[in-house]
Write a structure and sequence with these properties.
By secondary structure, the chain is an alpha+beta fold. Helix content is 16%, strand content 26%.
Length: 231
């Protein structure tokens, strides 16, 4: 871990103490997790502390952990043509009502110190996922929170205009949830008789998406390779 990241971690720990928990992150990055009840106070400290000054919210995204840790891909050694085979393994059906299924991730930037930090908060209630809006902390969260509401169904309390952003007003469901069908539930078509766009049952044939399998080729069998030419 770089010295600059560790120095930033020391400042965060000193300012927020037990309000945040450090979580694993790729090399050169710093990530923390906090509880929904302390979200706003943590965000204000990250923004207002002179040692931190994370004045900019770069991104806000929802996360669905329905299948997290359950998808296991095992492959044999790869050739220059691709993987030889792949297998999908899963132990039992996932629980859509499991606590902590939904979370929100905040990507923060300190322009003053040229540093970045990732903050994650899990929604306490899976049936009705909700968190406090951070619009009063970072005004640019407006559309980010609308997008997370639209695609994941996460409600942000205190948002002044929480409505769908990317899908149609009559759209049912939240398309980025892991249990939402890939082909959707309905499709729109123009009805020449009614002279307007109407909803109809989806007509796409469901397919199971699997990786392309590159089978073993006898040309790569060790016994059939050309012998080494002596030098």
């Amino acid at each position: 871990m770089s010295e600059s990241v560790e120095a930033l971690a020391g400042k965060v720990d000193a300012q927020l103490k037990t309000s945040v928990r450090r979580v694993p992150a790729p090399a050169g990055e710093l990530a923390y997790e906090t509880d929904a009840a302390t979200l706003l106070s943590v965000c204000r400290t990250l923004r207002d502390s002179e040692e931190l000054r994370f004045q900019m919210l770069m991104d806000l995204a929802g996360v669905d952990y329905l299948h997290f840790g359950r998808d296991d891909w095992e492959t044999e050694s790869a050739t220059r043509l691709g993987f030889s085979r792949a297998r999908f393994a899963q132990e039992g059906p996932p629980d859509p009502d499991a606590p902590g299924r939904f979370a929100v991730v905040y990507q923060l930037l300190s322009i003053a110190h040229n540093q970045r930090l990732r903050l994650k908060v899990r929604c306490p209630d899976t049936a009705e996922p909700a968190l406090d809006s951070v619009i009063d902390v970072w005004g640019c969260a407006n559309w980010f929170e609308r997008e997370a509401f639209d695609l994941f169904g996460i409600v942000f309390r205190g948002h002044p205009d929480l409505r769908r952003l990317l899908t149609d007003y009559g759209f049912i469901g939240h398309p980025f949830r892991k249990d939402f069908p890939l082909i959707g539930n309905v499709e729109v078509q123009y009805d020449p008789d009614k002279r307007r766009v109407v909803y109809r049952p989806v007509s796409i044939t469901p397919r199971v998406l699997v990786p392309k399998v590159i089978r073993h080729d006898h040309r790569y069998e060790p016994a059939l390779r050309d012998p080494q030419v002596p030098r």
